[in-house]
Amino acid sequence: MDKGNGVERRGPAAQGPASPEAPAEDTGAGRVPGSGPSSRLAKPSGDAEREAPAGSGSEDPYSTPPYGQPGPWAPAPPVQRPDPTPPTGTRLPPPADGGSLGSGAPLSQAPPPADGGSLGGVPSAAGPRRYDPWASPEPSPPVAIPVTVGAAQAPPSRTRRLVAGAAVIALLAGVVGGLVGVWLEREGAFSEVRLPQTSNGSSAAPSGSIAGIADALLPGVVTLHAPGGQSGTGFVLDDRGHILTNAHVVSGGAGAGTPVEVTFSSGDTVSGEVVGAHGGYDLAVVKVSGVSGLTPLELGDSDEVRVGDPVVAIGSPFGLAGTVTSGIISATERPITAGGEQADGSDISYVNALQTDAPINPGNSGGPLADGQGRVIGVNSVIRSVDNGGPEAGSVGLGFAIPVNQAKDVAEQLINTGRATHPVIGVTLDTRYTGEGARVGSSTDQPAVVAGGPADEAGVRDGDVITAVDGDRITDADELIIRIRSHRPGDELALTVERDGRELSIAVVLDEAPDQ
């Protein structure tokens, strides 16, 4: 038995040396199952054993294989490793041998030997596998290499150009889309239009402003409706219900007790009655009873008014209650007359008025004219219009108000006594005189100077021409009356008189005359 190669030989074949063409090789996997550790090496069928060549000598006790064949002292064969797998997607040329991959490994194995032995050092599947360092390496299993099917990939430079172009197009599309979106948003294409609005809040109007003056005065201003369709404005004097207005608003100075409807700024309407009126001053007082919460207006001093002072007028022009207008004082002591519709001239009023450019229209009559502090300085009374005060007359910036100092005196007389008086000098004036000043004279048989009157006692004579009062020039008879009525009974006036070419100065103490 030769154990030098790990193979047991018995019988005649063991007597001679091993054939160099078919060396005895134990792979550790070629034993027949069930033969145990002393199984024979598989031999081909038939008489395939070859005799040892002549002259080979005696049997090699170590079973040394011929030169170049694997043996115990031969160098180990190099380790064979499979070629590295190419990256996914790499296109490979077809194998040169028509069926191998990597290092010539066959894609399909040959059929096993007919005797069931091993092939190429590959152990039979029938026995257990054992590592044999001298066996040929097992062929690597076929590796599936994915191959991209379709058109060839674009060159990298072309791809970069395509990516850059796509980025530029996307950027331009984003910019254009943003601009279009902003424009559509501003045009209200995506939402309802909401206009900007600011508010000053609920703070009170500044004191002294037109809004502040209006807030203070409106609660004390009323609208009056008298019999006959007359209407106008008035304002509250005290908390007892006395209201001041123009005489022509309550039917030209109708007597006491005439009913009048009074409408307050709150919209409440109550009944009132006329306390008294004076046609020569165009003033009247109305009283309402049983009304609480009245707002009397503060009275100012008309003697302190200067040209250019700001003023506010409040009234009910053409029935529009609570209308507020503003302007300035255009002139003071402007002599005007109004009325004259009565045959006896009892409705003619003579007013030394305050002139204003604050718009005053029909219906404003009797309303307050207030200064910059909200104090009443006048009673709106007369306007000068293009059609000379017709029914369709309107403001042209020429409005006139009775000074509040004069209105206060008349109102106190009407409230306290029911009637009012005006000062006189006791003369008759010649209205036919067209020269400068006012001439004393009569167109009837009655004497021009009342006997025992103020003028008679001062020495005024028939035919004298009065040219000035207290140094202020007089242009006509109406202006002389206005100047006299702007004073109180008992006041002393200095008259400048022309007589027979001479100029005289005569002092006259005013007397009072009852209202007719």
List the helices and strands and how they pair.
Elements (H helix, E strand, L loop, with lengths): L99 E2 L3 E2 L49 H31 L23 H8 L3 E5 L5 E6 L5 E4 L13 E5 L5 E10 L4 E6 L21 E6 L7 E16 L10 E8 L11 E3 L5 E8 L15 E5 H14 L3 E4 L13 E2 L14 H5 L6 E5 L2 E2 L3 H9 L6 E8 L2 E8 L1 E4 L2
Antiparallel strand pairs: 1-2, 3-4, 3-6, 4-5, 5-8, 6-7, 7-8, 9-10, 9-12, 10-11, 11-14, 12-13, 13-14, 15-21, 16-17, 17-18, 17-19, 19-20
InterPro entries: Chloro_Bact_Ser_Proteases (IPR051201), PDZ (IPR001478), PDZ_sf (IPR036034), Peptidase_S1_PA (IPR009003), Peptidase_S1C (IPR001940)
Protein name: Putative serine protease PepD
GO molecular function: serine-type endopeptidase activity
Features:
516 residues, alpha+beta, Thrombin, subunit H, Pdz3 Domain, six-stranded antiparallel beta barrel, 5 helices, 13% helix, disordered N terminus
Structure description:
The structure is a single chain. With about 525 residues, the protein is α+β, with helices and mostly antiparallel strands. Among the domains are: about 205-420, Thrombin, subunit H, CATH 2.40.10.120; about 425-510, Pdz3 Domain. It is about 15% helix and about 25% strand. The longest helix is centred in the N-terminal third of the chain and has 31 residues, at about 155-185. Pfam families: PDZ_2 (PF13180), Trypsin_2 (PF13365). This is Putative serine protease PepD. One of its GO terms (biological process) is proteolysis.
